[in-house]
Amino acid sequence: PTVIFATTTPCLPDSLRCRNADIDRYNAAVVPRLEALGIVINDLHTLVADHAAEFIRDDDKVHLTQAGIDACAEQVARAIRQFD
Fold it and tell me: Which of 10, 24, 67, 75 has its CA 20 to 30 A from that of 41?
């Protein structure tokens, strides 16, 4: 079996629940270690960060909008299909 790790998605900068600096630090720490183990990385962080205003809900600054959910689902499905 192939293990696929999805990076943690960002929050909006004015979120009171989380900080992008912490998320970036976590992703930066874990991704190289997983890559060294041969684990495939699915970069959902960049996908969401590039469209944060559209993909992250403004009411809580953390969770995805329906557009964000759809985009992430499509990218996850593509990542899985490459190993079919």
Answer: 67
Q: What is the pLDDT of residue 1?
A: 85
pTM score over 0.90: yes
- The whole-angstrom separation of Cα 70 and Cα 84 is 21
Write the CB contacts of 84 (distance below 8 Å, at least 6 apart in sequence).
none
User: Which residues of the chain fall below pLDDT 70?
Assistant: none
| Torsion sign across C-alpha atoms 41, 47, 21, 61 | negative
As given in the structure block, the two tokens for residue 33 are 């270690």
Contact indicator for 39, 23 with CB cutoff of 8 Å = no
Q: Residue 48 and residue 55: Cα distance in Å, rounded?
A: 6
